[in-house]
Structure formats: C-alpha cells, structure tokens
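Form 7-S
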Amino acid sequence: DGTLQALAQIFKHGKREDCLPYAATVLECLEGCRLPDSNQTLLRKLGVKLVQRLGLTFLKPRVATWRYQRGCRSLAANLQLCAQSQSEAKTHVETPDSDGDYDIPEEVESVIEQLLVGLKDQDTIVRWSAAKGIGRMAARLPKEPADDVVGSVLDCFSFQETDNAWHGGCLALAELGRRGLLLPSRLEDVVPVILKALTYEEKRGSCSVGTNVRDAACYVCWAFARAYEPQELQPFVAAISSALVIAAVFDRNINCRRAASAAFQENVGRQ
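Output:
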C-alpha cells in the first residue's frame, strides 16, 4: 500500500508533463496487479485513487464549457468579485471549445471502465472514491463522451445488479450533478431511477439490505436541489417531494429518515 500511496501522491502533485510519459506504464502494471480482486479494502481504495489520478494525467486540464452552471451562490463573492468574474467569464467564452479536435487517449476508456467497476465494490469507501473519480474525469471530457459516462452510470440501476451497484450509482450521480456535469436534458432519465432508489429494499434471508441505497438517493435529491435552477426541476418537484416525505415519515431506518428530511428542506428552500 505504501507504493500505491506514493504513486497516487506523485500523480496528484507532480507536473503533468513530467508524469505523462510514465502514466501508461503505471496503468499497465496496475491492471496486472488485479487489485479489484484483492480482499484488502485499503488496497482496492488506493487502486481506484491511483487509477483516477492516471486518468486525469492522460486528459488535459480544461474547464468543460458545456457543463451546467447555476451561478455563484456566495453573496460576498458576488459583491467583491463581480467585475473579476465577468472578465473571467468573457475569457472562457472567447476561448474556443476544442471538443471537435480534442483527441482522447485510448487509456482513458480503460480508466473509466475500472472506475465503473469500482462503483460496484463491496466497500463504501471504494465506491465513494470511484464516484469522485468519475466526476473528475467527466469534467475534463468533451460533451459526448461525458454523456456516455452518464449512460454507463445509469446502467448500474438494474434490478439484476446488487445493492452495492445501486449505492455506487447514486454516489456517482450526486457527484456529477454537484459538478454541473449532469445536464438538465438527462433529468428525465435520472429522476425515475432516483425515485426507485428511494424505496430500494432487497430481501436476503431473514433480513433486508438497501438502507445505504436509500440514504444515497436522499443525498442525490439534496445535491440536485443545490445544483439546478427551480425551472429545471419544476416538472419533477412533485414526485421528488412526495417520495422524500414518505421516506422521512415511514422509512424504517433513522438515518434515512434524517437524510430524507434534510433533502426535503433543501428542496423547499431552493426550489
């Protein structure tokens, strides 16, 4: 684990031009180690962390001009940095979006595939790390490949998948929405899935699982309330609010009831 930690820190803090020549070799060695099959949670987590750092090294640092932006929500920042923000916005607008001629390295596909596998890991910390990695990777991708990533995340929400996949998918959707990488046009596909996740429960013998899925679904609703303008969520507000109230009142787990209550309050305040 010391080697993985060292490599993760090197690719995090090192200069891209210095790390890029070694990224493909490290990725190849990492794939040969088969860390997803390890029974040690820490090794799997560090493997996911290193994979996402390698993916960010392959992609050029860039701001996705296509992402959804609700705007600055800090009053102090609005008052102090209004002129500066406007000038920076003009600079970004004038910079041509190179989505059409931006070549994506072949290794990026392997990185995203490994992160999607990490969403289905048996441990929460690994799934959470993979979700953050998908959000960071999508922020540097052009619009079409990033939308393909969203589609791959939605594939986690199949009743053939385990509760781990549903939980990881919810975390990834929340991360994508929080970063503005889940465009409003995708909400009609995403919201029905989240409503199903709010009532997810699977019987296993004499007990049931799905508490973490319902809790993560509440987090998605909370994140969406902060990320989108009211007019974007207006067609879905009634369904979301009804599901959150039902979860806040009737869910058997107190953490889910608290999460649903917090998400409902956030939606009332912002939507």
